Amino acid sequence: MRATTPNPKDARIDLRVNLSQKTLLELAAASQGKKLSDFVISASTEAAQLALADQNRFVLPEEQMTRFLEVLEEEPQDLPALRALFARKSVFE
Questions:
Q1: Virtual CA dihedral for 82, 88, 92, 93, nearest 10 degrees?
Q2: Number of C-alpha atoms within 13 angstroms, CB side, residue 84?
Q3: Could you tell me the CA-to-CA distances from 53 to 19, 24, 42, 56, 64 in Å, in that order?
Q4: pLDDT tens, 15-53?
Q5: Are 39 and 28 in contact (CB under 8 A)?
Q6: b/e map 70-85, b = 16+ CB within 10 Å
Q7: What is the Cα–Cα distance from 78 to 82, expressed in whole angstroms?
Q8: How confident is the model at residue 59 (pLDDT cuts 50, 70, 90)?
Q9: Among residues 13, 23, 83, 92, which one has the fewest Cβ atoms lying within 10 Å of its Cβ?
Q10: How far apart are CA 14 and CA 73, in angstroms?
């Protein structure tokens, strides 16, 4: 899932950083030939995508992934205690 940037830019984010953070960001932006704002937007957007991907995607070694897929294909187990729990009235009702 990639976030799209509205065009033209019609939203604003104001940030306060300490001097060492600003210097670091400026150096990193310059090293990539970017303006500071473009660098911060790009880096923070990438970090946001990774943070969200971590919530809905996971990676397993091949052996574990194979086992995971096998388990998904198995017949569901009947768990009487779980069935009884779902049959009870919710505490939120």
A1: 150
A2: 3
A3: 31, 27, 16, 5, 20
A4: 999 999 999 999 999 999 999 999 999 999 999 998 888
A5: yes
A6: eeeeeeeeeeeeeeee
A7: 8
A8: confident
A9: 92
A10: 49
Amino acid 23 reads T
Q: Where are the domains of the chain?
A: 19-87
Q: Residue 52: how many CA atoms within 13 Å on its side-chain side?
A: 9
Whether residue 58 has pLDDT greater than 80: no
Alpha-carbon gap, residue 39 to 30, rounded angstroms = 9
